[in-house]
C-alpha cells in the first residue's frame, strides 16, 4: 500500500458494491487501492483471503495497521467517516440519521429484492413464479416510495449528494441495465430521472468509466 492510501479494497472494480466504496473515497479525496483482475469466485476462497475475511465476502477492506472489514455497507460508512467534514451524511445529526435510514433500507429492501431478481435472470438463483412475483411486488413497493420522494427533490437528504443517493443508485444500477424495462422506467419516471442524472455526475461517471 502507498503512504497516502487509506487501505486496500478486495473486489471486482465493476461490481456495484465496490464502485460504491470507490466513489465515496473519491468524493472524500481519499486514495483507495484495488486488486487488478480480482476473481470473486476464486480469490474469495483462498486460505489467505479467508484468514482476513472468514465469511469469504467481497468486497473486503484492509488497512496497513491490519484492520479488516467486511460488509459493503460497513466499509462504505467507515470510508465516509474517515473525512471529518464529509458532506456525505448531510448537514445535521438529523440528516445523518435520515441518510442511515435510506442506507439500511437499500441494504435490507431494495438491493435484496433487485439483486435476487437479477441473479435469477442471470441464472445464479432459482425461484418459482410465485416467489418471483412476490419479489417484484416488494421491489415495486420500494421503487414507488423513492419515486414519490423524488417528485419534488433531486436528492434524498439535505439537497445534496449523500450516502443515501449513492446506495440507491448502486442498488439499482445493475437492474436498470438488465430487467427494469421501459414500462417500469416510465412508471417510476422520477426515479429514472434520478438515475440518469447521477450517471452524468462527473465523479460517478469516472467510476463507471474505470469499471469498463
Automatic annotation (TrEMBL):
GO terms for molecular function: transferase activity. Residues 92-212 form the GST C-terminal domain. SUPFAM superfamilies: GST C-terminal domain-like (SSF47616), Thioredoxin-like (SSF52833). Residues 5-87 form the GST N-terminal domain. The keyword Transferase applies. InterPro entries: EF-GSTs (IPR050802), Glutathione-S-Trfase_C-like (IPR010987), Glutathione-S-Trfase_C_sf (IPR036282), Glutathione_S-Trfase (IPR040079), Glutathione_S-Trfase_N (IPR004045), GST_C (IPR004046), Thioredoxin-like_sf (IPR036249). Keywords: Transferase. The keyword Transferase applies. One of its GO terms (cellular component) is nucleus. Gene3D superfamilies: 1.20.1050.10, Glutaredoxin. It comes from the Eukaryota. It holds the Pfam family GST_C. GO terms for biological process: translational elongation. Belongs to the GST superfamily. This is Glutathione S-transferase. It comes from Conidiobolus coronatus (strain ATCC 28846 / CBS 209.66 / NRRL 28638).
Amino acid at each position: 500500500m502507498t503512504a497516502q492510501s487509506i487501505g486496500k479494497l478486495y473486489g471486482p472494480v465493476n461490481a456495484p458494491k465496490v464502485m460504491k466504496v470507490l466513489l465515496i473515497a473519491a468524493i472524500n479525496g481519499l486514495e483507495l487501492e484495488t486488486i487488478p483482475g480480482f476473481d470473486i469466485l476464486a480469490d474469495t476462497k483462498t486460505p489467505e483471503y479467508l484468514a482476513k475475511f472468514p465469511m469469504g465476502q467481497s468486497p473486503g477492506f484492509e488497512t496497513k495497521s491490519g484492520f479488516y472489514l467486511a460488509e459493503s455497507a460497513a466499509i462504505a460508512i467507515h470510508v465516509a467517516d474517515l473525512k471529518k467534514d464529509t458532506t456525505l451524511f448531510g448537514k445535521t445529526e438529523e440528516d445523518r440519521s435520515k441518510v442511515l435510514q435510506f442506507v439500511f433500507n437499500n441494504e435490507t429492501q431494495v438491493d435484496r429484492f433487485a439483486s435476487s431478481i437479477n441473479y435469477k435472470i442471470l441464472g445464479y438463483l432459482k425461484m418459482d413464479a410465485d416467489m418471483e412475483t412476490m419479489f417484484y411486488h416488494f421491489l415495486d413497493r420500494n421503487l414507488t416510495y423513492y419515486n414519490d420522494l423524488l417528485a419534488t427533490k433531486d436528492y434524498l437528504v439535505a439537497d445534496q449528494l449523500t450516502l443515501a443517493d449513492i446506495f440507491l443508485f448502486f442498488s439499482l444500477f445493475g437492474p436498470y441495465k438488465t430487467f427494469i424495462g421501459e414500462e417500469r422506467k416510465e412508471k417510476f419516471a422520477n426515479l429514472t430521472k434520478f438515475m440518469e442524472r447521477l450517471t452524468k455526475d462527473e465523479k460517478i461517471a469516472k467510476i463507471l468509466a474505470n469499471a469498463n
